[in-house]
Structure to design on (399 residues):
């Protein structure tokens, strides 16, 4: 089966690379992926499938049926939104949309799932059960396309028994994969603070209530949430990436806006941290004569990989790639809305290496991100093999 899948992956490779390059040239931002949705749906129709579009606004779902399709269902998910980043790779298929780029590899994810779909459709007579293909929008923007598709009924007719997805990993060489059992990626919430004071002339500070000074004290005071309030054994990150006070060298503004994120791996501590953020921000502001409005946008939960799904995926990876090319990974403080799926269905979210050997690593969310396109052949083939193994193993056990 492995050799048969690898032969198919190689034979479909040129077509799927063209898919990836088309998607890379035509990126679309979160919740605006109408062209991507239609392109993916058209490709699925060319494989003989019947996609459903508009799920969660711009998502696509299609089913592949094997023998006895009602017996078991595996879901496979890929995301396909881009980022507001101006590309500077110099690739001949660079983004044609100014200021928008597939800088997180979602074009690679989508192309790989399309390739996997073509392989599975070709081999549908060789497996039991069914495969649900989920092409998901808006992974990069709250509330997240996974949540939106679930709210829109993507699982109303069929509830998958297991679900799988992957993300490219630029620091891992192409031809390798990795994963982790249990808690893998952090929850993420966005913080929006508006510090209010009284502006005025910078030369008469005694007449002002300086929101810039207050905001600075708030940011420093909040560092104790991680260093003194969080359990040392509970990974937690509190970061602020934006602070805007619309003044000048000699003008103190009336207010300052601060934006940041908090990430962790405990729902109980997550809620407690929210309360502490609000208490500290408002308390510091009031003690200095101002006030602070706090809005916490409750985001994605943490990603948890099912132990058995992940062990099976690891074992299948060893069979497909060889023992030296499959790794156990550490926790990451990045976040993923795949977590919404993983909370409902036994899941495995794994990593596929995309690093071009002997070149500098180009990180995610960077304008110079480039991937080794051979990773697409590896990803689509392995996803197909892992899916068939999971289906046949479960249906055989159920018999």
């Amino acid at each position: 089966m492995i050799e048969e899948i690898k032969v198919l992956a190689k034979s479909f490779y040129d077509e799927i690379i063209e898919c990836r390059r088309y998607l890379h040239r035509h990126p679309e931002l979160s919740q605006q992926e109408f062209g991507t949705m239609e392109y993916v749906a058209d490709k699925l129709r060319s494989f003989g499938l019947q996609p459903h579009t508009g799920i969660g606004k711009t998502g696509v779902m299609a089913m592949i049926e094997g023998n006895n399709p009602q017996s078991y269902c595996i879901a496979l998910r890929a995301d396909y939104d881009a980022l507001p980043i101006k590309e500077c790779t110099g690739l001949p298929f660079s983004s044609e949309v100014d200021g928008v780029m597939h800088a997180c590899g979602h074009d690679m994810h989508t192309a790989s799932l399309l390739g996997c779909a073509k392989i599975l459709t070709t081999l549908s007579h060789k497996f039991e059960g069914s495969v649900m293909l989920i092409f998901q929008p808006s992974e990069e923007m709250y509330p997240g396309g996974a949540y939106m598709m679930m709210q829109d009924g993507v699982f109303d007719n069929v509830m998958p028994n297991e679900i799988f997805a992957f993300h490219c990993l630029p620091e891992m060489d192409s031809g390798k994969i990795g994963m982790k059992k249990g808690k893998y990626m952090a929850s993420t919430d966005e913080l929006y603070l508006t510090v209010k004071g009284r502006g005025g002339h910078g030369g008469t500070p005694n007449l002002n209530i300086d929101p810039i000074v207050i905001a600075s004290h708030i940011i420093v005071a909040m560092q104790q949430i991680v260093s003194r309030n969080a359990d040392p054994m509970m990974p937690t990150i509190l970061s602020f990436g934006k602070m805007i006070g619309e003044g000048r060298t000699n003008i103190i503004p009336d207010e300052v806006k601060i934006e940041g994120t908090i990430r962790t791996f405990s729902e109980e501590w997550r809620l407690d941290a929210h309360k502490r953020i609000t208490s500290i921000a408002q308390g510091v502001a009031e003690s200095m004569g101002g006030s602070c409005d706090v809005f916490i946008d409750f985001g994605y939960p943490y990603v948890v990989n099912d132990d058995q799904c992940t062990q099976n995926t690891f074992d299948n990876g060893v069979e497909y790639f060889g023992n030296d090319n499959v790794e156990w990974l550490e926790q990451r403080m990045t976040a993923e809305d795949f977590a919404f799926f993983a909370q409902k269905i036994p899941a495995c979210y794994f990593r596929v290496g995309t690093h071009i050997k002997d070149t500098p690593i180009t990180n995610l969310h960077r304008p110079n991100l480039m991937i080794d396109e051979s990773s697409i052949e590896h990803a689509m083939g392995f996803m197909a093999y892992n899916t068939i193994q999971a289906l046949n193993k479960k249906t055989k056990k159920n018999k």
